[in-house]
Amino acid sequence: MELTWHGHSTWHASVDDTSLLIDPFFGNPFTAVDPSDLDPDYVLLTHGHADHIGDVGAFTDATIVGTPELTAWVADEHGADDTVGMNMGGTVECGDAYVTMHRADHTNGIGTDYEYSAGPPAGYIIGDTVPTQETDEDAFAFYHAGDTGLMSEMRDVIGPFLEPDAAALPVGDHYTMGPAQAAIAADWLDVDHVFPMHYDTFPPIEIDVGDFEREVAATGSTATVHVLDGDESFAFERPYAEE
């Protein structure tokens, strides 16, 4: 699996021959990518705030995945023909990837005055195998937490049962977790790799991202913190690919 951070909460994940774009918002200071440069197979939306769906209209040729309320809005507003409406706890097969939706602790709504409901906010666990209760040492999963605060489900459900190996966590504070709570999340999830996101995009969420690295170390977590530059990629090789 290869992950690319395009700033804020916008990620591109490649699982074998399938490409997935999460929360397309290219109006952020970290990216030089124009939406027309990308051609994802799937676009995953965590919630309806403008800094997460701002450029979804550029990707109507892709399959749009999100809550039924949010995908219906994209179909109505942008003419998307291919949508997958799903809900909390569900897993859908997206090409070579398996996508599981989990709740996020946040608000939701579409439009300047949030005049449209987008259903509950969400995060996604993207894996190369379907999640089961049997641990598969060759499997790999990436957790995009969406916009969220710290929640016990990270410790009690997502970590032990969905078993992500890597996580992208919001760290900018004000609207989501800040560095200290995001570090606790990384520890609870028991991931090997963690990526900060949703910070330094606009003044209320400007932080010293080094604080997150220090807070992760303070928890005793052994997770490696990867602070990516905008449009930087990081590749994970599955164990069985080396055999």
Tally of separate helices: 5
- Annotation, overall tally of beta strands: 14
Strand order of the largest sheet: 6-5-4-3-2-1-14
Kindly provide the radius of gyration, computed on alpha-carbon positions and rounded to a whole number of angstroms.
17 Å
Average pLDDT, all residues: 95
Structural class: alpha/beta
Shape: globular
Low-confidence stretches: none
Classify the helix fraction into a percent range: 10-25%
Say what the CATH topology of the domain at 2-169 is: Metallo-beta-lactamase, Chain A
CATH architecture of the domain at 2-169: 4-Layer Sandwich
Q: What is the first-to-last residue Cα distance? A: 16 Å
Write the H/E string, N to C: EEEEHEHEEEEEHEHEHEE
Quick one: CATH class of the domain at 2-169? Answer: Alpha Beta
Strand content: 25-35%
The CATH homologous superfamily name of the domain at 2-169 equals Ribonuclease Z/Hydroxyacylglutathione hydrolase-like
The largest sheet, given as strand count, sense and whether it forms a barrel, is:
7 strands, mixed
Describe how the helices and strands are arranged.
Blueprint: E1 2-5, E2 11-15, E3 18-22, E4 42-44, H1 50-53, E5 63-66, H2 68-78, E6 83-85, E7 91-94, E8 97-103, E9 122-127, E10 141-144, H3 153-162, E11 166-170, H4 179-189, E12 193-197, H5 210-219, E13 224-225, E14 232-235
Parallel strand pairs: 3-4, 4-5, 5-6, 10-11, 11-12, 12-13
Antiparallel strand pairs: 1-2, 1-14, 2-3, 7-8, 8-9, 9-10
Helix pairs in contact: 3-4, 4-5
Any overview of this molecule?
- The protein has five helices and 14 strands.
- The longest helix is centred in the N-terminal third of the chain and has 11 residues, at 68-78.
- The radius of gyration is 17 Å and the shape is globular.
- The protein has 243 residues and is α/β, with parallel strands linked by helices.
- Residues 7-198 form the Metallo-beta-lactamase domain.
- This is UPF0173 metal-dependent hydrolase ATH50_2215.
- GO terms for molecular function: hydrolase activity.
